[in-house]
Amino acid sequence: MRLPVYLDWNATTPVDPRVLEAMLPCFSEDFGNASSTSHAYGWKAEARVRLARAAVASAIGAAPEEIVFTSGATESDALALLGAARANRDRGDHLVVAATEHRAVLDHARRLESEGFRLTLVPPRADGRIAAATVASALTDRTLLVSVMAANNETGALNPVGEIGALCRERGVLFHTDAAQALGKVPLDVRAIGVDLVSLSAHKACGPKGVGALWVRSGKPRVRLEAQLLGGGHERGLRSGTPNVPAIVGFGEAARIAAAELATEPARLRALRDRLEAEILAGVPGARRNGPGAERLPNTLNVLFPGVEAGRLMLEARDLAVSSGSACSSASPEPSHVLVAMGLSAAEARSSIRISLGRFTTEEEVGFAAGALLSAWRSLSAS
Ligand SMILES: *Cc1c(COP(=O)(O)O)cnc(C)c1O
Hints:
Elements: E1 5-6, H1 17-23, H2 25-28, H3 40-59, E2 67-70, H4 73-87, E3 94-98, H5 103-114, E4 118-122, H6 132-138, E5 143-147, H7 161-171, E6 174-178, H8 190-193, E7 197-201, E8 212-216, H9 245-260, H10 265-283, E9 288-289, E10 300-304, H11 310-316, E11 320-321, E12 323-324, E13 326-327, E14 334-335, H12 337-341, H13 346-350, E15 352-356, H14 363-382
Parallel strand pairs: 1-11, 3-4, 3-5, 5-6, 6-7
Antiparallel strand pairs: 2-8, 7-8, 9-10, 10-15, 12-15, 13-14
Helix pairs in contact: 1-9, 3-9, 4-5, 6-7, 10-14, 11-14
The chain binds pyridoxal-5'-phosphate (PLP).
C-alpha cells in the first residue's frame, strides 16, 4: 500500500497504464500534426484522433462529429457558456445556473453578467440536488441557457438532468451540463438526457490532464455556438489550436475503459464507499453525511466531523490524501460554496471532508483510511 493513501479522485486521477501505453507512440514516433493533410505523419495522427473521437463519442452515446476536443472541462464550460450566450443574444439575455456548479461554470456565468446578461443562481435542496421544479420556476421568456451539472464534485449529488433537459426542450432553452464527474461513474447518455452541450474532462477518469471535450448536439434546432479561440479553424472552427494528439489519444482510451468497466466498477466503488461511510459514522459521535439521502456518485463521501476543523483533521491524518470543504489556499479558508448553498454554516463547511475513491482504490486502503480518520478525530477531540 502506497502512502499517503490517495482518496481524492474527484480532484484528479492517475493515468491508467493502458492509457499511458496508448499515448506513448504519439510523442516521438507518430508525432504528426493531425491537421497536416499533405503527408503520412499528418494522416497517422489524424487517424488516431479520429479513433479517439469515436471512443469518446461512444462512451456518451454521441456521434463522433459532435465532439469538440478542448484543453479540459474548464475550457469546455467556457465554450459552452460564453459561446452559447454570445451567439444567441437575439434569443434572450437570461442565464439559469445551479449555485452548486464548479467555479469554471460560475465564473464564466459571472463574466457574462458583467457583459449585460442577467443571472439567476438556483439553490440546491438540503441534500445538494437541484430540483427540476426550482429550475422551472427560474425560467423566464428571456432565458437563453440553463447550466446544471450532472454530478457535483464535492458531494457527489446527482442532478435530475433528464427532467431538466425535458423542461428546457419544452421551453426552447439551451441546456448545458458539466459531466466531468459523471464519466465512468454513472451511465451517461446524452441523447437520453435531452441536453445540448456537455462538458467532459479526461483527468477525472484516469486519462491525462489538459484534455477534455465539449459535446455539441447536432441536428435541429441547430445549437449556435461562437468559438472562443480563433485561428486555424480546428475542431470544425469551434476550437482552433493544433490538436494535442497524445492527450486526445489518451482521452479516447480512458473513455473506452470507462465505458467498458461501467458494468462492474461503480458497484465495487459503492461497496467500498459505503463501508468507509459506515465506519466513520459509527466511530465519530455526531458525524454526519452532507447531503443525506441524495442520489449520489458511487465513489464520493462528504462527511461532517462536528467541532473539528477539516484542515487540522487532515494534518493529523497525514497518511491520507483527501480534501476539505473549503478552498484552504490561504490563512482564512473560504468555506465551500456548495456546502453553504446546501444550508451548512461556514463552521460546518470548514469541518467537512470530501473523500473520493477510484479505480485503483483497494479494500486495504479503505480500511486504513477509516482507521486513520478515527484516530485523528480522537486525538483532536481529546485535546
Ligand atoms: C474538475 C472539474 C472541472 C475542471 O476540469 P479541468 O479538466 O480540470 O479543467 C470542471 N467541472 C467539474 C465538475 C470538475 O469536477
